[in-house]
Fold this protein.
Amino acid sequence: MPSTEVAARAPVTVVLPTLNEALNIARLIAAILARVAEAEVWVVDDDSPDGTWRIVQEIAAADPRVRLLRRIGRRGLTSAIQEGIDASTGEIVVWLDCDFSMPPEVIPQLVEAVSSGGHDLAVGSRFVAGGSAKRPTSATRDSRLGVALSNWLNLGARLWLGPSFHDYTSGFIACRRGVLEELRLVGDYGEYFMALIYQARQRGYRIIEVPYACIPREFGESKTGSGLLQYGRRGVKYLRTAARLRLLGKP
Ligand SMILES: Nc1nc2c(ncn2[C@@H]2O[C@H](COP(=O)(O)OP(=O)(O)OP(=O)(O)O)[C@@H](O)[C@H]2O)c(=O)[nH]1
Ligand SMILES: [Mg+2]
């Protein structure tokens, strides 16, 4: 049930799921802590072959606000975020991708919307006024097809799940912990987000979208892949989740 208020000085947890983000993670942690000094940052790394976990281990040894959860023998974005949520304690939980596609500058606005703005969930959104989705250029590695599919997917989700929300696959959020105690993240990749938003709205939680401009990844490799087969496989999961949500009310 929606609660009345969050404590004014609620500590903030930022969960960072990583798989081969050695070129981004140190800079991202520094950028986050420079903006939300009271945050605890939980990096959930799936034993990245590029040694992301080792970099985080060194940062954590020098700064108690930084924690590492190194998973060995387990993989997956959704379960990584969920484990970070379970291990952490902040009253407000934030998570985002670690490739700088989601600007850390927006985190204080998301936190503020929950801590004092009266919202239970504040979502970084590409599809409200002031926000923008990635634009593929020849200088980036984002395929035109991938970006187009992501935009169509969101359009379809709006038609199917409700037009009052816009960025059903955002993955950039600040959330009151109580919401996450009621709703666990279910799914493999981006479809977990669709389910979280749909179910939170069904339960009457207050949700706001905060615009942000999504920037193409500059360093490191995409984990999404760009082949038609990979897009197809992932697309099926989104469709299945969307169908289950409307027909069964759960993912
Ligand atoms: N722990 C963990 N993190 C993952 C896994 N897969 C992806 N990630 C992280 O999830 C975030 C999103 O992955 P990206 O590779 O940026 O995927 P994307 O945003 O669809 O692709 P691009 O932005 O086009 O590169 C990044 O922080 C990744 O490091 C995984 O299996 N385990
Ligand atoms: Mg990305």
About this structure: The domain at 12-248 is CATH 3.90.550.10 (Spore Coat Polysaccharide Biosynthesis Protein SpsA; Chain A). DSSP finds eight helices and seven strands in the chain.
